[in-house]
Structure to design on (866 residues):
């Protein structure tokens, strides 16, 4: 038997130089088309050509399985398949050498214990499988403000990092608007058109944004400038034109779950958010910004535990608290530009405290304790009628917190919770499970609505009359306060009652 | 004090024995080894999600301990591990499912009432970061002071030191035993097998005693987590690459594995590298449980590392609750055939790639 020695080596991309930058396209993916388009704007402003990967399709699951090791979670399989499909198409269209020389793929790695930290291993299997080991794949660290890849062609500077943060915020805020408005739109399809227009306005704003400062001055400018909020005020005018009917009684369904799956909009999660809307629900989408807020606050919680063991404890605590405060302040300022229709970021300390009897906050991996905290937060604050938690098949941390939810449900049997395992190829099963809980959520939304009508003594006809006389309340950007009801229609009725002096 | 014999307790049990002895806890009782009977008798109805069997088996261990003569149940959430690779890798974390398993399985015993209280047992589940030396006593003390009246942080700190001493002493003995095996192989020019797995695959109910099947055929079996770490041996195996600047130390795995966060994974990868270099390891057996997400990204790299040197590689994957005795037997027979046929040749070729044999191998 031949026993020739061939030492295996980990994948190491060829350097990507500054000179190559103008002629090289950065491929990236993993978020919604909205976030990705905005990221494109941020990258273009600092001289990078970029191209998001195409939308995830069902075929990506099968393609991914052909290349990566057996037993992967469905986000890994879908995204690896998506990368394989993209590279294959580009190779066919532009030739192998052009693909290797003129394209790079950039992905994020972090997290550590969860498989998310090892996604790149699966992408490397794709490159091996396609015989493209020369193709360049770069891994960036999610938690570093400044970094560069070998060769210096890819430099993540402070202005770029802040551009990416604003892209994320914009994407989240428009997504929040979209899901808050579409179920109630009077003209079908108007919301989707306004979303597209909004994203293009914001893409241009990011592409043309001023580049101010390099380090601390860059940070201060990005925190205190009105530039980004002003762009959103322009966008608000588009949303002002959308008329909504908030008297449609709908259960509010909060989406939680594994990061990729909960954020995703497409075949990767059976398009479950759109499906829920078709089934009569209003969906509360999960912002990417919450996860970043969680990561910042986790640093604070860890530091607090280490009090007495770390040097300059108070200085460090002040620094992290300041970052956390500024992060939230910027997000709130942007929300305000949209009249606070998008949801605020939840208080991370509250999430931690709510989850504490069920899940230790230091058990970090994936979303850690946050999923339990979010479910309880939504339930206790009457934010939603139901929680739909999207759990990828094979996900390491997510299955664990779902199991721990058993005790939460024992303590709060009223909490409507639908953990949906997503394999990618069992759509009917997932819909069916979700439908069972949704039926009860619908009943509760209806009961709550009737209770408010009874309490206020209002009739639907009286509310319609009031709306005719006050058309501005039918605008999508009109803010209806929260009166302690989960449903939009119920809060709306209570608000009208207050305006009429009957609440 | 009852401690379930589960997951990373398999790699740290001696720490816990030393720790609780130092605290003066009367008696430490471990649950039995995992078995189908244990799982069905005591774990039934306690599982709240689908997972790998090593995690689900914890329900059986906890359930069994409820019927033992204990008044304290200790369920450590082991977040990071002591590892000989610390300082050479990015982190030494446990698998996410492993460190979250306690919160998960515990919920199955609490959702319809507090089963522990009903049995008159106090339960504690501290967060255990072995890699955070300063914080470890604090987290342990915060939990244990609730059930051990009068316990101080200083006492806990001293007990932690005793725990580490006990663990180090045990590991030293195990590594010496492994060196004995290596020396025996060298003196007799006989092949050995290396098992790459997770520490809890030593549990007969998890690893299904597959390693023992090879011993029946006369093959010594080494486990990756107790390999000898003597300087002279590692210099013989890795010295050339260090001098050529390929790796920084014998414990450097960055040449083959870049995301070195997981402790068990890092040690598996290091074990694979060791196997490719030690001439008498002619076959590597990989054990992996069904749905192991930590193993999944390592399948190809580990196989390629091992096979790159001409060493034989065999994987027993998707291990679950039931022992597939028939298929294991057939596969072992096949593997043994290959080992018998090729081992001599593999040893010879691997020896040719190394510097002269160190004298200390023949002491």
């Amino acid at each position: 038997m031949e026993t020739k020695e061939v030492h295996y080596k980990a994948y190491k991309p060829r350097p990507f130089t500054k000179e190559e930058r103008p002629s090289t396209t950065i491929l990236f993916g993993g978020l919604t088309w909205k976030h990705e388009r905005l990221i494109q704007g941020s990258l273009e402003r600092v001289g990078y050509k970029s191209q998001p990967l195409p939308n995830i399709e069902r075929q990506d699951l099968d393609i991914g399985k052909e290349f990566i090791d057996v037993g992967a979670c469905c986000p890994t399989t879908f995204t690896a398949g998506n990368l394989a499909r993209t590279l294959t198409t580009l190779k066919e269209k532009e030739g192998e050498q052009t693909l290797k020389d003129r394209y790079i793929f950039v992905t994020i790695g972090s997290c550590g214990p969860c498989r998310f930290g090892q996604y790149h291993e699966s992408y490397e299997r794709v490159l091996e499988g396609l015989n493209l080991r020369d193709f360049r794949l770069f891994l960036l660290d999610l938690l570093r403000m400044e970094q560069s890849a070998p060769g210096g062609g890819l430099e993540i500077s402070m202005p770029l990092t802040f551009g990416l943060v604003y892209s994320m915020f914009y994407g989240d805020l428009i997504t929040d608007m979209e899901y808050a408005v579409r179920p109630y739109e009077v003209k079908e399809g108007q919301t989707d058109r306004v979303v597209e227009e909004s994203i293009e306005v914001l893409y241009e704003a990011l592409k043309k944004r001023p580049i101010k400062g390099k380090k601390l001055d860059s940070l201060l400018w990005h925190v205190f400038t009105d530039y980004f909020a002003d762009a959103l005020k322009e966008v608000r005018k588009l949303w002002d034109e959308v008329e909504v009917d908030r008297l449609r009684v709908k259960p509010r369904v909060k989406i939680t779950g594994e990061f990729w799956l909960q954020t995703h909009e497409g075949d990767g999660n059976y398009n479950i958010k759109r499906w829920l809307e078709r089934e009569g629900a209003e969906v509360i989408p999960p912002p990417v910004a919450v996860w970043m807020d969680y990561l910042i606050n986790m640093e604070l919680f860890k530091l607090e535990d280490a009090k007495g063991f770390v040097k300059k404890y108070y200085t460090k605590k002040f620094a992290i608290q300041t970052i956390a405060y500024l992060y939230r302040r910027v997000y709130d300022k942007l929300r305000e530009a949209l009249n606070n229709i998008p949801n605020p970021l939840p208080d991370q300390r509250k999430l931690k405290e709510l989850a504490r009897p069920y899940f230790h906050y230091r058990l970090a991996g994936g979303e850690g304790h946050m999923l339990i905290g979010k479910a309880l937060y939504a339930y206790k604050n009457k934010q939603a009628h139901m929680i739909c938690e999207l759990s990828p098949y094979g996900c390491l941390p997510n299955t664990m917190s779902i199991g721990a939810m058993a005790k939460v449900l024992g303590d709060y049997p009223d909490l409507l919770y639908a953990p949906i395992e997503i394999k990618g190829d069992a759509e009917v099963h997932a819909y069916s499970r979700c439908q069972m809980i949704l039926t009860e959520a619908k009943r509760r939304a209806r009961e709550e609505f009737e209770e408010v009508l009874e309490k206020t003594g209002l009739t639907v006809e009286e509310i319609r009359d009031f709306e005719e006389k006050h058309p501005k309340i039918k605008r999508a950007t009109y803010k209806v306060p929260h009166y302690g009801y989960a449903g939009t229609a119920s809060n709306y009725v209570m608000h009208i009652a207050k305006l009429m002096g009957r609440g | 004090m009852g401690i379930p014999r589960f997951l990373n307790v398999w790699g740290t049990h001696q720490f816990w024995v030393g720790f609780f002895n130092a605290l003066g806890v009367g008696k430490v009782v471990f649950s039995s080894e995992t078995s189908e009977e244990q799982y069905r008798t005591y774990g039934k109805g306690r599982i709240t999600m689908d997972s790998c069997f090593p995690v689900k088996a914890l329900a059986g261990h906890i359930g069994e301990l409820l019927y033992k003569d204990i008044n304290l149940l200790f369920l450590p959430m082991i977040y990071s591990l002591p590892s000989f690779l610390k300082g050479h890798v990015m982190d030494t974390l446990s698998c996410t499912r492993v460190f979250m398993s306690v919160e998960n399985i515990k919920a199955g015993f609490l959702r319809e009432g507090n089963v522990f209280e009903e049995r008159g047992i106090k339960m504690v589940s501290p967060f255990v970061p072995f890699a955070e030396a300063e914080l470890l006593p604090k987290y342990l003390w915060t939990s244990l002071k609730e059930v051990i009246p009068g316990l101080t942080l200083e006492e806990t700190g001293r007990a932690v030191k005793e725990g580490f001493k006990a663990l180090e002493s045990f590991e030293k003995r195990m590594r010496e035993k492994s060196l004995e095996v290596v020396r025996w192989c060298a003196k007799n020019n006989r092949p050995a097998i290396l098992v790459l797995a997770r520490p809890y695959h030593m549990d007969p109910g998890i690893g299904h005693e597959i390693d023992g099947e090879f011993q029946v055929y006369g093959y010594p079996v080494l486990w990756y987590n107790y390999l000898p770490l003597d300087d002279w041996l590692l210099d013989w195996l890795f010295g050339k690459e260090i001098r050529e600047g390929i790796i920084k130390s014998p414990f450097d795995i960055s040449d083959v594995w870049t995301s070195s966060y997981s402790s068990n994974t890092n040690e598996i990868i290091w074990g694979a590298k060791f196997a490719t270099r030690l001439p008498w390891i002619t076959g590597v057996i990989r054990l992996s449980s069904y749905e192991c997400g930590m193993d999944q990204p390592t399948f190809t790299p580990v196989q390629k590392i091992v096979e790159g040197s001409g060493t034989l590689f065999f994987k027993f994957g998707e291990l679950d609750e039931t022992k597939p005795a028939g298929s294991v037997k057939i596969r072992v027979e096949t593997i043994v055939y290959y080992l018998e046929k090729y081992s001599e040749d593999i040893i010879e070729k691997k020896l040719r790639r190394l510097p002269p044999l160190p004298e200390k191998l023949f002491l």
